[in-house]
Design goal:
Blueprint (H helix, E strand, L loop, with lengths): L1 H24 L3 H5 L8
């Protein structure tokens, strides 16, 4: 049970870290799928 909870905690930390790093690197869906002809609010 302890190993499973540790795994869940690791998944949460990796997910939050990936969200932050990809957002800072410019890989957000808004940055990737928009162009000069697309207006996103």
């Amino acid at each position: 049970m302890k190993a499973m909870l540790t795994g869940f905690a690791a998944i949460v930390l990796i997910g939050i870290g990936a969200w932050y790093v990809l957002g800072q690197a410019g890989f957000s869906s808004q940055d990737v799928y928009s162009s000069q002809n697309v207006r996103l609010d």
